[in-house]
Amino acid sequence: MRITTLLMAAPVILALAGCVNNNPNSPTNNAAVRTIGGAGAGALIASATGGSKTKGALVGALVGGVSCGVPGLPACY
């Protein structure tokens, strides 16, 4: 059941990832948006795999917020 949910969520996540605007000056390219997106993704993945949604959201928010400083990713403005 959990793996089925995760497999069904994967195409949706990939489809939404295609909507990301790669313009560095885009209002969607900031730390707040990445943090909120990471929290949502973390909670969704934790829920699908049977983990704690709260812990998943916290880890996702941390990863999303820190992603502004990762080399190779567009920098946040």
TrEMBL record:
Keywords: Signal
UniProt keyword Signal, yes or no: yes
Signal sequence, renumbered to the chain: 1-17
Protein name, entry field: 17 kDa surface antigen
